[in-house]
Description:
homodimer; mainly alpha; Tetracycline Repressor, domain 2; 9 helices; DNA-binding
Amino acid sequence: MTDTEKREPKFSRLDADARRLSLMEATLHCLSTLGQRATSVRAICAQAGVSPGLLRHYFDGKEDLVASAYEYLTKKLYDSFHDLIGNDELDAEQVLKDSFEILLNSEWVSKEMLGAWVAFWSIQQTDERMQKQHHEANHEVRKIFAQLLTNYATFKNLNVNDQDIKFATIELMGLTDGLWLELCLDSDFYNGEQAVTICMNWLNSFKERFSH
Amino acid sequence: MTDTEKREPKFSRLDADARRLSLMEATLHCLSTLGQRATSVRAICAQAGVSPGLLRHYFDGKEDLVASAYEYLTKKLYDSFHDLIGNDELDAEQVLKDSFEILLNSEWVSKEMLGAWVAFWSIQQTDERMQKQHHEANHEVRKIFAQLLTNYATFKNLNVNDQDIKFATIELMGLTDGLWLELCLDSDFYNGEQAVTICMNWLNSFKERFSH
DNA sequence: TTATTAATTATACAAATGTAAAATAACTTG
DNA sequence: CAAGTTATTTTACATTTGTATAATTAATAA
């Protein structure tokens, strides 16, 4: 090799944010495909295409990276809901239906997606930071669903008070979370489309219960 | 020490079934309190009060032990339901209420209990034996709930067909599973008693929907 | 008591883990 | 082009992991 030949760079430097993002996405990918057990620092960094030592340059450690990836995934889900609400073209019923579609009949429903969440819950068990994050995210989603149901009640001219909305929200979120979990674990008994139909039936029951 | 003195035995031998049971319960205890990550062979055997080497004498390995513990826990839950059904003293509505109590307002609801299930789901992701076990257990519970709803429909003289029961079962199991999961993860928004009330309200809606 | 059996322990080991520290090299600035 | 900065790699290391094997020892039977 002569001096005039340009060598290929062994690696390229990345913007800090881009590198952090890439590591978080690699973490999600590993948790999804390999499971929590096999998601090691080396596996994550291999997926991200960097050497293992780099992790500590951007995160306090593996735990910090996983917690950050959780935050990232949670925000992603939250954003997809918020986009729906912001759309003024849709009526309250359609927004709810679209929400059900996202939750129960999209890429959010899969054994792989469950893998990531299960890993997070597992860590949450002994990690206070993760507990707090879950609590706050849960609270946000709960507020959104309560708002969606309130809009729906107004749309259908229902006779409901705050307490009714609160309990209906608990019931609806319980239903969607449960259907999501069961679909992820084993979709042999019913599919996402049927799950959406079941939620719409629930919504209809909700309407009947409070219409007068 | 003279020959006439009796030495304390360093350990005592146990019946094979008893030892297996003890190891499975130690596994559940570790998964619950330590989380999946810290549930090592050494931790399990310490909890069971035996040396680490013994595990391989009763199980093919750690994976086999965990899968067996899962089977054991599943059966335990299944049995507690079956006891309810067998009780002829109770009417269909009361049996359902008691089922909700077990699922949502008992020792089955805790961060610790979730720890065990989360560990199982995590393994299930990459373990076919666990997947099969979950599928079969799920199928059994689904049959039980379908039967409970059928009894209830007869009891209340409802006008339902098999398809109605099937979808109502999916909805009810989704609801209970979701409420259970949310309660285990974070019980700040509502408690087990309220969850039971919500399920009873659902049952009432079910009755209204099909009564004529 | 003595011999036999096998449940249990003790020891060892290779592989994998998370992370610290030093070495390298890509980029920036002058 | 030269020097400085720091993102990235390389290497190393102490722990922990699951498991295999050999050494004990409790229980059983003769």
